[in-house]
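Posting for a labmate who doesn't have an account.
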Amino acid sequence: MIRLAKEKDLDNIQEIYVYARKFMAEHGNPTQWGQTRPTEETLRKDIEKEQLYVIEERDRLQGVFALIIGEDPTYQNIEQGSWKDTTLYGTIHRIASASEAHGIMEQVLAFAWEKIQHLRIDTHENNKVMQHLILKNGFEKCGIIYVDDGSPRVAFEKTSKEEDEKKIAQNPHMEEKDLQESDITDATEIAHTVTSSEVNTKLQIRIATPLDAKEILDIYAPYILQTAITFEYEVPTLEAFTRRIEQTLVKYPYLVAEQDGRIVGYAYAGPLHERAAYDWAVETSIYVKMDAKGQGIGKKLYVALEEALLRQHIVCVNACIAYPDQEKDVYLTKDSVDFHAHQGYKMVGEFHQCAYKFDHWYNMVWMEKSLCERPQHPEPMIWFSRLRKKNAKTEPVD
C-alpha cells in the first residue's frame, strides 16, 4: 500500500535512508547523498506539503519517495540536451527502499504515472543501478541538470506522448481513439459562458490561473478582516495565496466567475481528509465579491464545480461553515447555511463554540451533498491536472 507519510513514520523513514546511503556507497556512489541527505528538515517539509509517500506492507515500511507536481526550480535549465514536453509534470525525488524490499522502483513509477502522465527524475552519474531502473521503466535521458549544491545530475523524462508513439510503432494501424480510450470523453476545461436571469450581462465561469491571485485575494481579504465567515485572522501575502491556487489546481478544480472582465467570485475544492479512503469526498469553498451578492453568481460557480468534480469521480461534497449562536451578529449571519441548503446540502453536524474571532466564540457546522449514487466499486479519483492534460491532448535513490 502506498500512502502519504506522517511524522510518526520519520524514525522508520530515516532507517531506510541510512540503508540507502550505505548501499550507494558500496556500489560506487558515495557522494550523492553523503552522510546526511535527505535531511530531517527536508523530510518534514515534504510531509507538511503532502508530497512524501511511503510504501507499507504488513505494517512495515518498505520504501519512501517524494512526488512533487509542478515546476521544479532545478529543472529550469538543462544542458547537453532538452526536455521533450513543457506541460505540467511530476518530479520523483528521494526514492529509497528497505534492505529486504524488492520492486520498489516499479511501484513508485506506477503510482506516479497514475497521478500524472508526465514525469521527470534525475540521478547521479555514478548511480548506475538507478539509471538502469529508470531506463528500464520507459524514461529517456534528456540532459544534465544541476541541484542546489551545484553538482550535476543526469535527467530523464517520460511522457504520455512518448508512450503513444511507442504503441503506434508497434501497431501502425492503431487509431487515435484507441490511444485515448481511457480518457474522459467530455473532460472539462470548464470554460463556458452563461446568461443569468439574475444578471443582465454574461457571466463566464473558467478555471483560475495563478495570474488571477491578486483579484481573487481582493475578494477574499474583506471576508478575513470584516467577517467571521472565515476563521483566518490575517490576509495572506500575494505570494502565499498564489501558491494556494497552484497547489489546489494540481488535484482539484479552482474556478472563477468573470463578469465584464472582472472576477466577481470563485469556488474551489480540497481534500476532506488525507487518507486514501476519502479520495471520493471533498470539501468545497466559495466566495462572491461583497457588492455582487444576490445575483446568482454563487449558484453558477457551484454548478460548474460539481460538473468538474463528477468527472473526477467525486461522489460527495462537504462544506465547513461558520455558524452564529445568536440571531444578531455583526460579523456573521446564517446566509451561508441558507445558500448551501438551496444548493442541496444537508446539515449533518454542529460543533459548539469551537472557534474564536472578534472577541467572540463561534459554532461551526458541516453540511454535505451527494453528487451521485455510491458505486459498489468506484473508479479511481482523477487528479484535476491530469484531467485537464487529457482534455488538452492534440532501489535506492533518485
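Reply:
Got it, the C-alpha cells are right above this. The two ends are 21 Å apart (CA to CA).
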